Amino acid sequence: MIDTAMRRRTPPFLLLGGFAALVAGGVALGVWLLLPFRDAPPEAAEGAARPVAAAPSEDQAICADLLQTDPEAAGRFALDWAARNGGEGAERCTALALMALGQPERGAARLEALAARSAGTAADRAGLYAEAVQGWMLAGDAGRAYAAATLGLSLAPEDAGLLLDRALAAGSLGRYAEALADLDRVLAADPRRTEAWAFRAAALRRMDRAAEALAAADRALALDPDHPEALLERGILRQAAGDAEGARTDWLRLLRAAPDSAAADLAAQNLELLDAGPASR
After folding, report:
1. Measuring CA to CA, which residue among 155, 151, 163, 165 is closest to residue 33?
2. Spatial distance between the Cα atoms of 196 and 207, rounded to a whole number of angstroms
3. 243, exposed or middle or buried, with CB in 10 Å at 0-12, 13-18, 19+?
């Protein structure tokens, strides 16, 4: 616990970090899901749900490629696949095509319905719920995302990706203690999960536990010195503690390391406010 006399509340004009960056960035944890029938790349494995299929079929591989290059064609292919008795694979392709075409709520609802009646294993169904989480977050419905993640966790209670997703949804709803509980479960199993430390910093900051939040951000950056959300969070915490130059250093590093990220957009806004001085705040 930190001494309450030393606690500093983050100024409202610099509450541009943590969960906000992740939601604005289209749920950074799950972007790889647009390659739904292939193994997650190692760098994305921290927050991603496991694919339903153990090995991609030719139809699955075609759908995955089209989702990346031509989502409308992916939707047409899914209809053709369904007509050839494509079953759950074709339904999933349709749902993911809808998400890629900017209709995430329709895709998420289809994925949830498919997960509820799927003949797959518990892990397979949990993966479908995890993909639904991504759709609901992209649609801006953190409540539905939280519910979908909870359904997935009822099938795969220790799935770290689902725990991270539910923590993100909880944080977006302002339920920081719940987010923290899920993050602690992830880190107890694997203390080297950088995203979890960055999210933990955001949750703790929102709970006015600044010293712990700074320690979490430092831990994330010890694992990955260029982690965007961790740099954003540490900059906010440094600024709140009166260390404007430290904050500037973190935000400038973020802009260099990940210039196209949502976190970078928020860091740039924070830098503008910092440079403008107190009068503009």
Report:
1. 165
2. 16
3. middle
Structure-derived torsion over alpha carbons of residues 260, 266, 269, 271, reported in degrees to the nearest 10: -90
- Spell out the domains of the chain, with CATH numbers in brackets: 4-280 (1.25.40.10)
Amino acid at 273: L
Report pLDDT for 167: 97
Q: Cα separation of 19 and 132, whole Å?
A: 19
Tell me what pLDDT residue 47 has.
Answer: 38
64-104 per-position pLDDT tens digit: 999 999 999 999 999 999 999 999 999 999 999 999 999 99
Nearest to 182 by CA among 198, 204, 160: 160
H/E element holding 20?
helix 19-24
178: Cα separation from own chain's centroid: 16
**Rounded-to-integer distance, Cα 88 and Cα 208, Å:** 46
